[in-house]
Amino acid sequence: MLLDRYIGGLTLRAFLIISIGLTALFSLLTFVEQLSYVGRGNYRVTDALIYVLLTAPYRLLQLTPVSMLLSTLLALGTLARASELTAFRSLGISEARIIGAVLKLAFPIIVALFLVAQFVVPPTQQLAQRQQAAALNDAVPLLSADGFWAENNRQYLNVQDFGYGNVMEGIEIYSFGDDGTLHSYIHADRADIEPDGTWLLTGVLRKQVVSSQFITQKFASLGWNSFISGREVQLLTLPPETMPPVALYEYIQGLKRLHQQAIRYEQKFWTMVSIPLSILAMVLIAAPFVFGTQRSQSAGRQLFIGTILGVVFLLSQQITSYLGLLLDLNPAVSALAPTLLLLGLGGYLLQRQHDLLARPSHFPQFLEKLPIARALFGKQNDEDEAKSDDLKHEVK
Predict the structure, then answer these.
(1) Could you give the 3-state DSSP secondary structure of residue 158?
(2) Residue 250 and residue 259: Cα distance in Å, rounded?
(3) How far apart are CA 94 and CA 85, in angstroms?
(4) Which long-range contacts (CB under 8 A, 24 or more apart) does 4-8 make?
């Protein structure tokens, strides 16, 4: 228990520092991108900064697997260079037991990420989009406690609630004449936006005033040419990329019940599912780069190797996701394939832990042969070899 707290605490401190650092780095890149909008409408540098801050939780969520890989390498590498891992093993503590201490830390991190994805990311992403659109002078309908209201040519539209994607619920449409009298009233349970921009109302109740009398009609579905543009609807509805996991799953099931295409949303859902598995895989894959190397590798070299692995993993995830959409592959397979391959590789390398203690893994050696790695660490290696030669001469 004491060992778990010691290793977990060291890894947690490294994880927090690296997570904040990576999120800040990618936020800076986003800020530079947002500067291209400064000067349009009322968009100012402060608006760009607010947008970056509001979208930071989403970037943190996406970068967590890489942060976990780097923090594991840094924390265990520190123990290895201080010969603490050697001391642990001399006391009969196995490599699997040490990795297990890091895996115990991964589970509360996964729970925290789920809470962030469920309750923090959706509202902050939506608020960032609305504030950006308002600063750019894009038209945004009036929001209130009763949903939102919009008016055009004596037509008043009220939407009580928003689903996800292009779905709205509780729609009321009032039409008035030039003299201010009510001509018609439409209530719909739901509205779906068609590709051509028209709204398909379902569960419709329409009342029209004819000769001072109401004529009531009911329709299973009814088309309506909305005066709200697609851009304005996107500002009010939550895009599927930032849906909460639970709501995204329910939305997918709803689309399937309506026999509508849901592969894009399924791909996003399984990508979310892959994040916890990716965190576990990153912990496993970090072990071969720590055990057996002991003090022979510097912290910079280990972080360089981890960065290369993280970049390759992120790129492979994006490539398989795009290929899955392009080739109409199973969303679960295309989204989970890189993570499952990484898990398998990490498990295989852990089984060879005794071999790794006898000789380093060939994969780190391959990375060290890259030109950038030789440029960064070649000088240090030459100095180490020179010191070793001097020591041999002194012994003779």
Answers:
(1) strand
(2) 14
(3) 10
(4) 4/100, 4/101, 4/104, 6/101, 7/75, 7/76, 7/79, 7/98, 7/101, 7/102, 8/101, 8/102, 8/104, 8/105
The label of the residue with tokens 């832990």 reads 353
Alpha helices in the chain (DSSP H): 2-34, 45-54, 56-81, 84-90, 95-115, 121-135, 230-236, 245-257, 263-286, 299-327, 331-351, 353-358, 362-368, 371-395
Can you name the residues that pair with 210 across neighbouring β-strands? 213
Rounded Cα gap, residues 344 and 337, in angstroms: 11
Locate 188 and state its tokens. 């719909």
Query: How distant is the alpha carbon of residue 135 from its chain centre?
Result: 26
Tell me the pLDDT tens digit for each residue of 291-347. Answer: 755 545 566 676 677 778 888 888 888 888 888 878 888 888 888 999 999 888 888
Using the structure block, give the residue that is written with the tokens 């001399």: 90
- Which residues does residue 202 pair with via DSSP β-bridges, in sequence order? 190, 221
Range 194-201, long-range pairs (CB < 8 A, 24+ positions):
194/223, 197/226, 197/229, 197/230, 198/223, 198/224, 198/225, 198/226, 199/171, 199/223, 199/224, 199/225, 199/226, 201/171
**Domain spans of the chain, in order of start:** 2-135+257-360, 142-228
Identify residue 293 by its one-letter amino acid code.
T
The helix-helix angle for 121-135 and 45-54 (nearest 10°) equals 160
- What single-letter amino acid sits at 41? G
Q: What's the pTM value of the predicted model, to 2 decimals?
A: 0.73
